[in-house]
Amino acid sequence: MIDETYKREETLLALKQLWALIIKNIRLYFRKGPVLIFGFLFPLFITFSWMIGREISLARLFIGITSMAIFFTSTAISPVILPWETREKGLERQLVSPTNVTRILGGIILASTLVSFITTSTLVLALSIGMGITFSSPTLFMVFVGSLALISLVGSLIGVLISAPPTDQLPDIMTLATLLKFPLVFISGVFIPIHQLLPEAQIAAWFSPLTPFVDAIAACVGEAHVIPLPLNVLVLVAWTLALYVVNMILHRRTMEKRFSH
Amino acid sequence: MDKEKPLNSADMAIRAENLTKHYGRFTAVKGITFSIKKQEIVGMLGQNGAGKTTTIRLLTGLFPLLQGSTVEILGIDIEKEPVRCKSLLGIVPEMNNAFLDFTVFQNLSFSGRLYGMSKAAIERRGRSLLAQFGLADRVNSLTKALSKGLKQRLNFCMALMHDPPVLILDEPCGGLDPISVKLLREQILQLRSLGKTIVLTTHDMQEAQRICDRVMIIHKGSLLIDESLETVRARLGGAKKITCKLDRDPPAGLESALGAGPRYDGPELMVNGSSCQVITREPLASMSNLHDFFHKTSTVVNDVRMEETSLEDVYCQLIEKEGSKND
Q1: Could you list the residue range(s) of the whole structural domain that residue B285 is in?
Q2: B134 falls within a domain
Q3: Is residue B287 situated within a structural domain?
Q4: Does residue A16 contact residue B113 with C-beta atoms inside 8 Å?
Q5: Strands B41-45 and B197-202
Q6: Predicted confidence band of residue B326 (pLDDT cuts 50, 70, 90)
Q7: Which residues, including other chains, have CB under 8 Å from residue A116's CB and lie 6 or more apart?
Q8: Nearest of A23, A123, A40, A106 to residue A74 by alpha carbon
Q9: For the purposes of burial, counting CB atoms within 10 Å of the CB of A210, is it exposed (0-12), middle (13-18) or buried (19 or more)?
Q10: Which residues of B touch A17 (CB under 8 A)?
Q11: Which helix (H) or strand (E) holds A123?
């Protein structure tokens, strides 16, 4: 009985802490310079340089902008927080309170997911109305929204993974993030549909977590896609789980090294 | 080591056994064991890099314990019940750890929430602490706009939000202005009167002497001393400190003239440029030896002073002895 009460109290405390961490991360990091540059300005300029002077169908344009916006936004906030808080000592403050690495990472992942999902959904809604993009069934629309949520989560997990090296130098982490994110965007069918890529590039494309999302939303808006929609969603779920596990293992190993100097 | 009274586990606030920490091949903390009584203020002294902060990080659960090591806070094992154990601790760091882009109150509120406090409790406790630490008019100020002294007061408030019975203060007054230092020292003493147990790391021997009941001296990862202040003072057995300021560096032969050397109870000589210090249990004999030596070597003495020995003298003597052992 005492054990059950204790467990219930601890679960309640964990939820309260998670909420406090999410709110803190959104308030503190959403407007930081690197987040605005890498999360909002980068995809905007890449979109312009991609579309100007090219004949691209509205549907392809919609797929490209949506994919870039959600991927860049979701991978922009999460890598910033750990090196920033290591440098400013806020991470140590959280770790000596009755919380743990899982909750701290959870707070980062969920804050990044929420921000990227809400901001990109607003953009995507405006785009779909402006471009006249329609979904042939409510189910496809729901799958589209669900895929947006899943890729926000996957992007946030990738961002947190990038911040696993135990450094307090933000530029190091942002360089690593750029090195990883750009090739992923180029091989994932964002600019050229997957079925039009070279055979070798098509194989490489399936090593990117962005590919199942691009293929899934292509299916949702009635464009050519490579694998069935349910399979794309399943692959996204598998990426989410795999990235979560890898993150927990890596960060538990590197967390202590952040203070070992 | 102080073997005054064996501690009953019910009297203990902190029990640390065989604390060890390696950074690669370097051992920063070498099997340190100690206990701290409830309501005690214990000073943890040591040079930079001696292992004080690492010891604190082991105590607070920031670093995992190696097999065979134990930390208990009020009888609760930090490895077995980290959440309960950490709830009993309040930590004030040397460097500010409040979020700079949060206001003073947002920082307090975040701290309170990490400990599961309700909104009303945060409001009540937060306002009271801010008044106590002279920050009542800074509630809505951004933390980055505060001076170093005010930031440190905020760190105290954050550490006290959940009213922990055990406080760990890591050089809390380092680099602060005298007004902030005075206020924080008063607060530390007041916290003791409220029944808190306090571990204080510091380089400031006078501060330790003024505030602490007990001192631990850590040197190169090992615990050299864990004794009450009275016992530490008794180590020098009523010795006196003679300080002489000369017109030049002391000539060779001063040490032998004093009879100073490795003898445990003999006079200890420390030379710093043209100034020399002698710690001695026979002040009159030492004074006479000094007079004869300076007279013989035609050395002009500009100033001479005889004082009671302090914690700082014990500390310096111990560290120098350790240094000469290693040499």
Answers
A1: 240-308
A2: no
A3: yes
A4: yes
A5: parallel
A6: low
A7: A39, A70, A73, A74, A76, A77, A152, A155, A156
A8: A40
A9: buried
A10: 113-114, 116
A11: helix A101-131
Model pLDDT for residues A179-232, shown as the tens digit of each residue: 998 889 888 888 888 888 888 888 899 899 999 999 999 999 888 888 999 999
Between CA A126 and CA B176 the distance in angstroms is 54
pLDDT surpasses 90 at A146: yes
Instruction: Taking residues B112-133, report their average pLDDT.
Output: 96
> What is the dihedral sign for C-alpha B104, A34, A145, A249?
negative
B39 occurs within a structural domain: no
CB–CB contact A97 B57 (8 Å): no
Rg of the Cα atoms in chain A: 19
**ipTM value for the complex:** 0.88
> How far off is chain A from B118, nearest CA to CA, in Å?
10
**Based on the structure, what is the number of domains in chain B?**
1
- For chain B, helix (H) and strand (E) counts, in that order, are 11, 14
Among residues A125, A123, A102, the alpha carbon closest in space to that of A39 is found at A123
**B102–A contact, CB cutoff 8 A:** yes
Q: Which residues contact B168 (CB under 8 A, 6 or more apart)?
A: B56, B59, B60, B89, B90, B91, B92, B198, B199
Q: Is B223 within a domain?
A: no
pLDDT, mean over chain A: 91
Residues present in chain A in total: 261
What is residue A3's predicted lDDT score, i.e. its pLDDT? 74
Residue A261 has pLDDT above 90, yes or no: no
Whether the CB-CB separation of A24 and B110 falls below 8 Å is answered with yes
Q: State the pTM of this model.
A: 0.85
Question: Which of A10, A89, A98 is facing B97, going by the closest CB pair?
Answer: A89
Look up the CATH number of the domain holding residue B294: 3.30.70
A12, A94, A96: residue with CB nearest B61: A96
Six-digit token pair at B143?
Answer: 């933390």
Closest-CA distance, B61 to chain A, in angstroms, reads: 7
pLDDT at B131 over 50: yes
Q: What are phi and psi of A50, to 5 degrees?
A: -80, -45
Neighbours of A230 (CB within 10 A): 11
Summarize pLDDT for B220-253 with one digit per residue, the tens.
999 988 988 878 877 766 788 899 999 989 888 8
